[in-house]
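User: Can you help me understand a structure? I only have the sequence.
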Amino acid sequence: MAGHSQFKNIMHRKGRQDAAKAKVFAKLAREITVAAKAGLPDPDMNSRLRLAIQSARAENMPKDNIERAIKKAAGADTDTFESMRYEGYGPGGVAIMVETLTDNRNRTGGAVRALFTKYGGNLGATGAVSHMFARVGEIGYPAAAGSADAMLEAAIDAGAEDVLSSPSGHVITTSFGDLGAVSAALEAKLGEAETVKALWKPVQTTSVDEEKAASLLKLIAGLEEDDDVQSVYSNFEVSDAVMAKLTAA
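Assistant: Let's start by predicting it. Here is the structure, written out as tokens:
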């Protein structure tokens, strides 16, 4: 019975992982379709589409899925999605930004507001917290791509702003406007990056205790679970010990 129970637990865990991956793929496909519809279906001529495809590859999204999402943009029955950003404060006054792609802003806005309220946050107006973040580009390479000195030299030549090297890899930061050019220059010299993404990076952080952190993580998880939500950014800071305790629970 113990072996059978263990098998059931493994299969249940695998099922959850598969469902989570399917949700990630669905969100990536939506961004690819929207990007292709907004411009040309050629990533060499459409920087947003190129970035979306690179993000999909980083998540090991199958090539067929990517091509299907691009072709879907040409369909007459394709839903019209718009980008919406929601800003607010979570538990402990933590700044949170939520980026969405939605075909129904009332549905999405209502769902986001309900989650903020449920976990002790407050949804604000556009611009309420964005001043606490900087729009940047991040390019990731594996440690095997080169030494810290070699990566620094390549990043400087490409026009990047900063490089953080560690045993797990290299993270190159650039301005959002230069992301495409820097990424292309690095790819020509180092090969294709593991990840290329635009994100909101906090320029100031807010420390929270264990209780507030627990509510905050539930809020972020709830937001990320929503099909319309593409990305969630926050500026919370918590100790490694508290984070380990909360994520292990």
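Now, to help you interpret it: Residues 133 and 201 are 5 Å apart (CA to CA). The first helix runs from residue 2 to 38. Let me know which part you'd like to focus on.
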